[in-house]
Automatic annotation (TrEMBL):
This is Processive diacylglycerol beta-glucosyltransferase. Residues 205-328 form the Glycosyl transferase family 28 C-terminal domain. Its EC number is 2.4.1.315. One of its GO terms (molecular function) is glycosyltransferase activity. Pfam families: Glyco_tran_28_C, MGDG_synth. It is an enzyme of class 2 (transferase). It is found in: Membrane. Residues 17-181 form the Diacylglycerol glucosyltransferase N-terminal domain. The lineage of its organism: Bacteria, Bacillati, Bacillota, Bacilli, Bacillales. Keywords: Glycosyltransferase, Transferase. Belongs to the glycosyltransferase 28 family. It comes from Paenibacillus plantiphilus.
Amino acid sequence: MRKKRVLLLSEGFGSGHTQAAYALAVGIRELNPNIVTRVIELGNFLNPVIGPLIISAYKKTVSKQPKLVGIVYRRQYKKSLNRFTQLALHRIFYTQTAQVISQLKPDLIVCTHPVPNAVVCRLKRLGLDVPLYTLITDYDAHGTWTSPEVTKYLVSTSLVKKKLTDRGIPSSRVEVTGIPVHPNFWRTNDKSEIQPQFDLKPMPTVLIMGGGWGIMYSDNLLKYMAGWRDSIQLIYCVGSNEKAREKMLADPIYQHPNIKVLGFTREVSKLMDVSDLLITKPGGMTCTEGLSKGIPMLFYEPIPGQEEVNCEYFVESGFGEMLISSDTIDKWFSLIQEPYTSIQHRRDLLSKRNLQYNPMQCSRAVLQLMQ
């Protein structure tokens, strides 16, 4: 008997969209090994020369002109990608999408980014007969995700569902599944077993993440955190920003036995397990991974738009706090040095998480919808 196939389409505009696609794919296979999954960053796959150039230009815009990104986000907030835009995207970048789908013969397509979602919606209007699930990878519902051709929306919270139904999307077409995380985040590892893998000591530990593109916080506060290095173990994870990593490694303030400066790593799950506090940008994926681990979070410099909404959700839900000054650092760095208080706080977050989020729910939901 032919195995069922799930095609997951994403784009490289931020690492979270593709991470969500891979997390869902791995989760599906772990729950049902008979399902075949394939993840494709569609633009890069179809245009391996032009695609990376466009993404690079987008990165520069986000890092250098975040206010412009916010303005565009808000102006288009309630608007779907119109048919002319969908046609232009298809003609310029995605002309071979139908051929790819025809070759792979998926039983189901999941899109984790609005652009491939719009392209597949256009193909469905032209006769493509494959169910399309749209996984919204933030804690907001921007209009560019929406289209009449979407079979089912998979969303992070009931609040996002309400935003979609308020726009006229039937409630039956929206399912609250949470954002999927890799199965590594479904489980908790023992600190004492993991610490030697990273040459870490059994002491209060803070994980500072710069995001998938390595966009870090201001030098002043990074150095202020390092000033705690005698009593707090600090793990700086700067992502793909190798220049930032080299700069930090050359700075004497970070040359200390209790400070680790890491580049890109696939061990974030373990690093969260050995840490008592996460300092991060409020990207939908990283926040959800932190939520799944029940680690308290401090959020810095949200990009105007979806990151602001993500931050608002997690702060209001009690899973994190905005990092607004050195006073915030002093408060939390002192708190995690009190073992009972720190352990109890994490237990409280895990209990709250269990009421609001099941890390396996999205994978399970897709399997149930395929039956």
